[in-house]
Amino acid sequence: MANLNEEELLRTPVEDEEILDENVCDIFLKNFERLSNKLLSQVTTIGITCDNELAKSMRTDDPRRETVVASVREQVALVREIAKATFAEICELSKPKVAERVFELLREGQIGSVSQLQEHMKKCAATTKMVEEACETLHCHDFEVSMRVKGLSAALNVERQTSDELWLQIIQKDLQIEQFRQEVEGLGQRKANSLMEQDIGNEAAQGKTSRISMPSHQQYYETMRREEFEPRRGTRQSSATEEPIEFSLGDHIRTMSLPEVQPFCGRPGECFKRFVSSFNMKYPREQWRDSNRVQLFQSFLRKNA
Question: Does 19 fall in a domain?
Fold first, then answer.
C-alpha cells in the first residue's frame, strides 16, 4: 500500500478508504508508543555513559565519582518520568475528541465500522420519516403514535367482533326463513294432495269411467275440467256474468290439443310472462272457475319459483 502512486490511490475502492480511516488512529498510536520507548531507552544510556567516562579519570572508591554518578542517575530518572508524562499527554491529545459514552453506545449497538454506522443512520432516518407520516395521518404528536395505534387496534377488534355477531345473526335468519319456506311449501302440497284425493273420490263415487292413463297431475286437471262442463254439457258459464255460454265439443277438442303447460321453477332463462300466457291459453277463464284456476296455477309453481 505504501508503494501506490497518486493515480492508483484515486482508483482505490471506497471500502479500502473506510478501512484506512478506521485504522489510521490505531497505527499512529502504535508508532508513537514505539518511538517513545526508543527515546526513553536512550535517556537511560546517559547515566551509563557518564559512569564510563568518570572511570577513566577517577578511581572506583573516589567520593566525588559516586556523587557525580548519583546526581546524573537522579536527573536521568527525573527526565525519564517527565518524558513519559509528556508522551502520554501528547498521545492523549492525538486521540479523537469523542465522549466515552459514544464508544460505549457503539459497542452496545454492535457498530464497529463506518459502513455499519451509515446503515444504522439510514434505518434511523427511515424510522423517523415513518413516524412523521403516522403523526400526519393520525393527527397527533410523535409521542402519541403508540397510544393511537393501540386504540385503533382495540377499536378494530371490537368492530370485527360486532361484524362476526351480525354475520351469525344473518345466518340464523336465513335458516329461519328456509324453515318457514319449507313449512309453507309443505302446507301447500298437503292442500293440493287433499283436493286431488277429494276430487278423485267424488269421481269414483259418481261411477265415472276411468280415462286413458296419463300423468297424475294431468288426470287431476282433467277431472276438475270435467266438473266444469259436465253439469251443463254443451253449455258453459262466464265467470264474470255467470250467464250460460254455449260450449261445443270442438272447443273442448281444440283446448285439449294445445301443448301442456310446463311447470315454472324460477330458474335462469325461464320467462314467467310466457308461463302465464301458456296457462291462460290452456285453461281460459271462460271455461274454468276462478277457484280451480288458482289451484291449477299454484300446482304448476315449483319450489324455487
Answer: no
118: closest CA among 102, 106, 132?
106
Count CA atoms within 13 Å of residue 303 on its CB side.
Answer: 6
Task: List, as one string, the DSSP characters of 13-74.
Answer: -HHHHHHHHHHHHHHHHHHHHHHHHHHHHHHHHHHHHHHHHHHHHS-TT-HHHHHHHHHHHH
Q: Do 81 and 40 fall within a single domain? A: yes
| 37 plus 83 within the same structural domain | yes
**73 with 48: CB under 8 angstroms?**
no
Nine cell digits for residue 80: 525519564
Amino acid at 210: S
- Give the pLDDT score at 241: 46
Residue 56 lies in a domain: yes
Same domain, 30 and 92: yes
- Report d(CA 23, CA 114) in Å as an integer: 11
Domain hosting 165: range is 142-192
Q: Model confidence over 20-35: pLDDT tens digits?
A: 445 556 777 788 788 8
User: Could you tell me the pTM of the whole model?
Assistant: 0.30
Q: How far apart are CA 246 and CA 233, in angstroms?
A: 9
Same domain, 63 and 92: yes
Distance, CA of 166 to CA of 203 (rounded, Å): 55
Residue at 230 is within a domain: no
Give me the half-sphere count of Cα atoms (radius 13 Å) on the Cβ side of residue 73: 9
